[in-house]
Amino acid sequence: MLRKSLLSLLLSASVLSTACSDSDDEQKPAPAVLIIDREAVDFGELEVGQTSPEHLFTVRNASPSAVESVSVKVEGSGFTIVANTCERFLDAGMECEVRVRFSPRLAGPSEARLKVEGAPDVDSAVLKGLGVGYVEVRSLPGAGVHVVAEGEGWSCGEPCRVAVRKAQVTLRTAPAGFPTWGGDCTVVAGGGCSLVIDGTKVVSLEELESFLRWEVRRSSHPLSVAVSAGGDIHVLEVGQLLRFSSTGQLRWSVPLSGGVKMAQDGAGNAYVVDSFGRVTRYSASGQAPWTSSEAVENPSWHQLAVSANGHVYVLLNLGNHELASQLKLIALSPQGVERWSLLFDEGQFNYASGLAVNAQGEVYLSGSVHNRDATSGESVFVKSYVRKYSAEGAIVWETEDSWNLFAVNAEGAASILFPNHQSTGGFTQRWIGADGVTRWTATVPSGPGLVTLQTFSPSGALLIGGHEFSAVGTEIGRGWFSAMNLTTRAPGPVTYVEGSTGLGGPTRISDLALTPTGHVVVTGGFSAIRDQDGGFIRVYDGRVLTGVP
């Protein structure tokens, strides 16, 4: 209707112009108008490599005079003019025809424009179509193995043929592992199979080597893990300390009363602090040569750090969270004798968020101070800090910082992470040198989920881990871990820690460590709530950290 109205208006304007003019010399010719009869045509779905039926378009000269140079063309890919009578001259009020076909070269949506030129204003029609390709998975290595289309919502647990409506698709495996692909695959980072869908693509999954080297299931969530220079693995659980071989064989276990934190020295001795602040040393054979004597009145979650040469530092929580709380840092010799102590009473409530020690035995402490408003009863922030103390307890430096995830490497540099608790994940990382000066701050805007822990290995690798957000954005999903690339200041390849069924589900990671051979030890449990549905100790092949099979 709009195009017909335009034609009537132009013809009326021509008549009025003729009637009102005093002479032919004063008349101005009406501008040429060329109109395509349709504004858009959807050619629908068509298999890649096939050709659609022709669609007819009519071009009308809607001006009162002939147009000398009519031309029609297609701008965009996938559509072709197969017949055309619109060749230069088109008399007033006359029509010409164009026939167009759709021939998709790639799967996915295609859009182009059919344009008619020869008038001051170019008219056009939108051409749309959807290319469809196919992926044929012809073989899989065994039961329980699936080929999964990344981000596409489909998978195959047996040979299948699936329609694909995207130009490119990446296939991965479930469970994750080191796959050997055959067929039309281009192997990409993380062992994925990348396909450009320019026709039917044939794929075979010939072999799948598991990321997981071994696993030990536990009845509860382990609390922390440490690996000796010889490869043995200490695991702290509620009520016991265990030592495993590098292949997952249990060497020994000892019962504990309220162990809350475990650390290890360079000789492979384990140290456990209980909820009352007593520290016990355990030899490589599981014997306990000593237990420290100082204890607190109220049970709490205390901090523990041990240097490579066996100097022990325990940070005790004193008081309670209702009236007032203080911190007490105690240094113990390798024989369990107190060397010195410091009391932190800088406000009504003194909280610790991290304790670490470097290779030289220097101590790092992060914490914060709060008061309570006398009228409202609400907590009032006073300050937060990161401090470094010498091996003898003298303060070396202090920097104000928000307390959060905190780790120190052997050289004394500190990594502080500030997680983004939104569903997009991500975090901000601050790197503080051994001299207390901030070297850099970097932000990772989004990530695989919430970061909940970070830890340095003896080799200097920084591992981070956490869990996904569920679909509703509040509950936890799969666990994950990665090694930070401290050059690019971004996480490396991410490994997801699946639930007990191996197909997603909530997984809480409690700790991470590296073995001397570079494999990743992961402890945690199969539920959002601690000690529901059991726990695990897993060792993942170290190749997951680089994504190189």
Automatic annotation (TrEMBL):
Keywords: Signal
The keyword Secreted is annotated on this UniProt entry: no
InterPro entries recorded: 6-blade_b-propeller_TolB-like, Ig-like_fold
Highest rank taxon of the organism: Bacteria
Gene3D superfamilies per record: Immunoglobulins, TolB, C-terminal domain
Xref: PROSITE patterns: PROKAR_LIPOPROTEIN
Endpoints of the signal sequence: 1-19
Protein name: Abnormal spindle-like microcephaly-associated protein ASH domain-containing protein
